Fold these 4 entries.
Entry 1:
Amino acid sequence: MNKTILATATGFGLLAIILGAFGAHGLEKVIEKTAVETFETGVRYQMYHAFFLLFLGMWDGMESNRKKVVFLVICIGILFFSFSIYLLAINELTSFDFKKIGFITPIGGSILIAGWAIFGYYILRDKTHK
């Protein structure tokens, strides 16, 4: 069990619940429906990966240094992907045009994919567990 990973997963999960409620009950009155749906996509993927990190933190089937790599990649992916989506969704509420940084979203998605790929690679390359 890794307390750092579990605490981070808990934080991302808690934040996803808070942002999901904010999106459903606060944003629907001030931004367009498609923007709310976009916001909810960020929340959904953040929660998926919070669950992934919970599993990773509880699982004893991987070396600590490998877990750390997967953990860091997934956290960076969440921050780039979900948080850029949040900013893009509320773009009309701010004076800054977040569309200028919209290229971060697919980079974040690619980082999340890489995190899963690294996780799978480590599982397949593990010689100690069969």
Entry 2:
Amino acid sequence: MGRGRQKAKHTKVARELKYFSPDTNYDALARELTSAESAAVDAERLEEDLGKWPEFSSDSGETRTA
């Protein structure tokens, strides 16, 4: 295959990708972003991490100096 045909195919594919717009399910996206369950999991994980590394906790009252 010559360079002209190859370039034409790449151009065609690039154009299809550029103008391709899939249908977005905004209701499902909103449910995922506002999920109460994920917020609870995130809060629990934050507490675990702060327990492991107390120097990053604002409750500790200690200041870290370099």
Entry 3:
Amino acid sequence: MAPDDWEDWLRLTATDGVGAVTARRLLAAFGLPAHIFAQPASALAEVVGPALAARLRATPAGWDALRQHTRQWLADPQHHLIALGDTRYPAPLLTTPDPPALLHVVGDAAALSAPRALAVVGSRNPTPQGAENARAFAQALAAEGVVIVSGLAAGIDAAAHEGALAAGGVTVAVVGTGVDRVYPARHRALAHRIAAAGCVVSEYPLGTPPLAPHFPRRNRLIAGLTQGTLVVEAALGSGSLITAELATHMGREVFAIPGSIHSPQSRGCHALIRQGAKLVETAEHIREELTGVWGPPALTAPAAAADGDAGTDPAEDPVLAALGHDPTPFDLLQARCGWDTPQLQAHLLALELKGVVQRLPGGRLQRVARA
């Protein structure tokens, strides 16, 4: 995105009546948002009808305040606007039916394109065992480099985020508000920790309050960013079942943890299992089902790894293999490798001294190209 293009993208998505599907229709017809706004009303009306064409030709309500607020928000280097067509746009979302035209991200946007990601969702009022299951599954998988994606809600969502953080892993919160607002408010500290270890993302403009219709819609992003969805506990009619249904329609795997036949919080999971969801009792069951998509678990550090053990061939050095070719934050590299901090830092220093890894501004690491 060019430096000033974000204003046109923001204005497009802030126009009343322009959702993800309509935005893509306009982009397909006219190209970039600046070209859309340059069209006469008659041309716009042929694509979206006269009423929406008139709104596109007008300035959205509260536009000046939103633009100024967003400009100030973007001054923080951890704040990002990512539009369709941007190289940072999450690749998994591009395979979904209606990817958002614009994403607001706090934290490391690279976490949104993780090749190994699992959605963990469930009840806002789980049983103690349900919350512990969410935490344990998330912690076990995050320790192997799987990015845990959830919705920052109370209950299972929060437990899943906490489990990933406890493993020193990466987690993503998809929210139904503006990213500058935290709902529920008691998760403010949790949201900051998530942004530091991964990111918080929303398709809604800054300042958007927690409106009920937004949460079912954000569920499609939770499902779309991952290769599978785990439902831990859910009553019949739960929003988590919407996420599971969306995941199925997107061709993603759906997993469910069984529970007591007497518990209302288990009935949604049992219904999913009857409909074909994979019954899982351990994190290993998920690994087995997704091995073909994820590949083997991230390698753990050898017990006696030392500075001199660093190699220069990615086929032989697990850290170089995990680093790949793109600039990578230390936390994400650590999540992929599963090494503890002192061990990984020592190994990276050895790689730097050998001239095969360099540190970039912002604490990112990158492999040095060799002739």
Entry 4:
Amino acid sequence: MFEDPLMKMWVSFIGMALMTVSVIVTVFTKEKLSGFLRYFFLTISFICIIISGIIIVLVVFTGPAPE
């Protein structure tokens, strides 16, 4: 799936960025929002963490880059 090691690096960075976005959105939402907006942003945060988990699993299980 990832033949280019540089592409694999960028995809893993995207996964880590999504995790960071998820944490920041969750903390902000729990502190500042209520009602519909709170559940909307928590849903977005949950989707970000699921996508990042899938990305990280794909990166880890594709193994080391070919020599």
